[in-house]
Amino acid sequence: MPPQAALVNGQDPRQNSYYKHPAKKLNAKDHQTLEDANMTMDHDILLEVSVDTDRSSHSGVHSIGNELALVPLEPPRSSVSIAGGPTLSNGHSTGSGFNLYQGSSVSSSLTTMDDNYDIYRGERGGLAGLQNLGNTCFMNSVLQCLVHTPPLVEFFLQDYNDEINRDNPLGMSGELALAFGDLLRKLWSSGRTAIAPRAFKGKLARFAPQFSGYNQHDSQELLAFLLDGLHEDLNRVKQKPYIEMKDSDNRPDEEVAYECWKNHMARNDSLIVDECQGQYKSTLVCPECGKISITFDPFMYLSLPLPSTVTRAMTVTVFYCDGSGLPMPYTVNVLKHGCCRDLCQALGTACCLKSDEMLLLAEVYENKIYRYLENPLESLTSIKDEEHIVAYRLKNGARKTKLEILHRCPDK
């Protein structure tokens, strides 16, 4: 092999398909970023380093000869790595090859970035936004919620390398947690500059193809996947034991709850469990023998109904039976689950009902009285919004004779 070629992972880089058939040639002198060049996380970069003894002394890079290296494109890492460990380059320690002087501009910039990670304790952090990559507002909203959750911020701004479980078959080899941690660090160290989460979206599309592309998706489904994926990548349990659940057997709820949670923690122990999981009580009664079975099941999120109003607006036309006034519509607010008595009281206040008067409710359909609402305890849920309700002002104690006058053509 010629001396100017470097072995990559013990192999001649010319044997690599990327070396033989480069997909795209990038000029190092261009000012475009990798994002502008449409480079994704699955692409490889063939890097050629030129020797310049005069400039190398200023750049802080040792002269290592004209070498070739195949560098997989990974999320950018800081001088303390994405998880706070030793400096990494292409997944390997940079103890050999490239070294950075203490006074170099690159080293100082990385040190400044790491110092900015401490701004979480101040008032300057967490002001960066996320660029919309195209119908990714569902993802950006979820990410902003997670990266501003204090326990998650404190965890991912520190060294969490030892917390990553790369051997969990239910996880993603820690890659999802690393990608999320890298994005969180960018958002908390970039001031107010908007970040394009392309690297994170690439990882997301890799492990969850349903979120690939640029279509709209459900935010709750993404949040559920992220919480579950982060939990498995950060699960402190390396070997999950088999545990047989026991019946409650009329034991106190405190004892059963503690036992169920202890069994759950024996297989699931992570930051997500500590901050985002709980358990609820389930009671099952046998309809035949009447036996009661009580279990405590873990949960990470609950679906709750949207709050609804407890009142409804109803419009009722009030008629004067003595002809002293013209029919007048009144709109009143009553309880949704109230009764006709509540409607009469609200109408009486609105139309200034006298103490010696009362109201008789009726439903009108096709210009005819369809039914009378004489029962004061009848629920208002039986009255639909599209129904036409009228009320007649009558004297208390007066003898009432119901006379319906219809205007229609005589029957043929």
TrEMBL record:
SUPFAM superfamilies: Cysteine proteinases. The lineage of its organism: Eukaryota, Viridiplantae, Streptophyta, Embryophyta, Tracheophyta. Pfam families: UCH. The keyword Hydrolase applies. It comes from Pisum sativum (Garden pea). This is Variant 4, Ubiquitin carboxyl-terminal hydrolase 9. PROSITE patterns: USP_1, USP_3. Keywords: Hydrolase. GO terms for biological process: protein deubiquitination. InterPro entries: Papain-like_cys_pep_sf (IPR038765), Peptidase_C19_UCH (IPR001394), Ub_carboxyl-term_hydrolase (IPR050185), USP (IPR028889), USP_CS (IPR018200). GO terms for molecular function: cysteine-type deubiquitinase activity.
